């Protein structure tokens, strides 16, 4: 089933609402209201892949939180503080990942329409593409190190500084190469042109988008009213 | 050729890419250090500054213009704001401004100025732990208790960040790591990146 992307305006509004709600709430437990709305928002957009992964992630955090609070579970490698923090921030992660996976052309067209400066648009697009790009590069560095026998536990323990250098230097060199390639590509596509940017996939805000804008505003308002506000 | 101080597309892309890499390193170090209270509360900031120093040096040397540190600190502050600590955004912007003042007169060409800027930012980075204690302790404690965290964890946090001895140790350790990281960063830049012709 094809994804039904909502307008970028709705996605930014949803992110703003969740950040505002989480920053101002006095009761962290009530953040599940925002998270459940976020999951419904993903389901509406038929973003089932993200819905499944975030659903499992949130379920796991809920289970851990339950065990910590009611059965005295003590975390050995991951602090209880961070379990609640991630649980609390789940709504931001959900709408944030949804925004990140929006087609870059749609995002750039919307930001250009609202007169966002070009460096900010470029910065955001680069930031959103960082994780998939770096994941591939990191794997490549790992494979090269394994070929040279530099990933053996004994080597890593005996030569931590050299190991750091072997990972960091190629990663940084690749970062610079990627930055060059991206900037050449952006300039070739007219990034330095002062006019408004458009996209073949640019969408107009429909009645459904306005409904979701209202839903996010109402849910955040209700959430802050129930959960109380801290200043 | 006349070189302006306006950031080009390449400068923006490089700054953002390396900034995100530094933030990713910071989050990864924090996650790994969580295994132990002492390492997490006392040493993790120092380790972060040590590992990020080469990336910072490369970023400033490569872009070779003003406002790179301010952009990095602003993005870092925005990440903390998304995590619910809105007060860290103006704080990090202020730290970025201080670093920009240090680097104002072609600081990217001087290893000493870059070392001074990173060492000062290492000192001020401790605000991430100190500001909640000084200004938002009630909120922090309520959040920690509601997460099911043991009172002993909260007590050790208070002990490390309110006792003068520990505070001095944490600050010295962080500043020392930032300084050593800067020296390593300077050497790595010379050893690898200048030779590779990317600077």
Automatic annotation (TrEMBL), chain A:
Membrane-traversing stretches: 12-42, 48-69, 81-100, 120-138, 207-226
Subcellular location: Membrane
InterPro entries: ABC/ECF_trnsptr_transmembrane, ECF_transporter_component
Superkingdom, natural source: Bacteria
Main location: membrane
Keyword Translocase: no
GO cellular component: plasma membrane
CDD domains found in the cross-reference section: EcfT
Bilayer topology term: Multi-pass membrane protein
Protein name (Swiss-Prot/TrEMBL): Energy-coupling factor transporter transmembrane protein EcfT
Keywords: Cell membrane, Membrane, Transmembrane, Transmembrane helix
Automatic annotation (TrEMBL), chain B:
Membrane-spanning ranges: 12-32, 38-60, 67-83, 89-104, 116-137, 157-185
Entry annotated with the keyword Acyltransferase: no
Keywords: Membrane, Transmembrane, Transmembrane helix
Annotated Pfam families: Trep_Strep (PF09605)
Highest taxon of source: Bacteria
Claim: Methyltransferase is one of the keywords in the record: no
NCBIfam families: Trep_Strep (TIGR02185)
Protein known as: MptD family putative ECF transporter S component
Lineage: Bacteria, Bacillati, Bacillota, Clostridia, Lachnospirales
């Amino acid at each position: 089933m094809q994804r039904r992307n909502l307008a970028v305006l709705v996605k930014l509004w949803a992110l703003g609402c969740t950040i505002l709600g989480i920053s101002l709430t006095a009761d962290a437990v009530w953040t599940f209201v925002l998270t459940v709305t976020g999951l419904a928002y993903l389901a509406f957009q038929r973003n089932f892949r993200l819905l499944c992964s975030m659903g499992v992630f949130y379920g796991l955090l809920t289970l851990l939180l339950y065990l910590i609070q009611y059965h005295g579970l003590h975390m050995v490698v991951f602090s209880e503080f961070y379990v609640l923090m991630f649980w609390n921030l789940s709504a931001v992660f959900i709408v944030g990942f949804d925004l990140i996976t929006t087609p870059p052309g749609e995002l750039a067209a919307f930001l250009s329409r609202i007169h966002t400066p070009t460096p900010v648009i470029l910065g955001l697009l680069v930031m959103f593409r960082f994780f998939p790009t770096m994941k591939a590069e990191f794997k490549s560095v790992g494979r090269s190190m394994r070929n040279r026998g530099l990933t053996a536990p004994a080597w890593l323990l005996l030569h931590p500084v050299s190991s750091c250098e072997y990972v960091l230097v190629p990663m940084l060199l690749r970062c610079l190469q990627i930055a060059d390639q991206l900037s050449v590509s952006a300039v070739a596509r007219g990034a330095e042109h002062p006019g408004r940017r458009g996209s073949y996939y640019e969408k107009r805000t429909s009645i459904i988008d306005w409904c979701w804008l209202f839903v996010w505003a109402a849910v955040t308002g209700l959430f802050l009213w129930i959960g109380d506000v801290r200043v | 050729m006349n070189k302006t101080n306006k950031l080009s597309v390449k400068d923006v892309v490089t700054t953002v890419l390396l900034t995100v890499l530094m933030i990713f390193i910071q989050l990864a170090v924090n996650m790994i250090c969580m295994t132990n209270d002492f390492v997490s509360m006392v040493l993790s900031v120092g380790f972060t500054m040590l590992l990020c120093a080469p990336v910072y040096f490369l970023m400033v040397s490569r872009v070779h213009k003003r406002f790179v540190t301010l952009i990095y600190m602003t993005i870092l502050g925005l990440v903390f704001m998304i995590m619910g600590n809105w007060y860290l955004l103006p704080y990090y912007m202020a730290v970025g401004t201080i670093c920009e003042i240090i680097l104002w007169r072609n600081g990217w060409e001087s290893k000493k100025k870059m070392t001074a800027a990173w060492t000062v930012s290492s000192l001020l980075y401790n605000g991430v732990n100190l500001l909640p204690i000084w200004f938002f302790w009630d909120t922090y404690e309520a959040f920690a208790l509601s997460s099911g965290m043991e009172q002993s964890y909260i007590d050790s946090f208070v002990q490390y960040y309110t006792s003068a001895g520990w505070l001095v140790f944490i600050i010295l350790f962080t500043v020392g790591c930032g300084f050593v990281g800067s020296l390593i960063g300077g050497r790595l830049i010379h050893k690898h990146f200048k030779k590779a012709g990317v600077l």
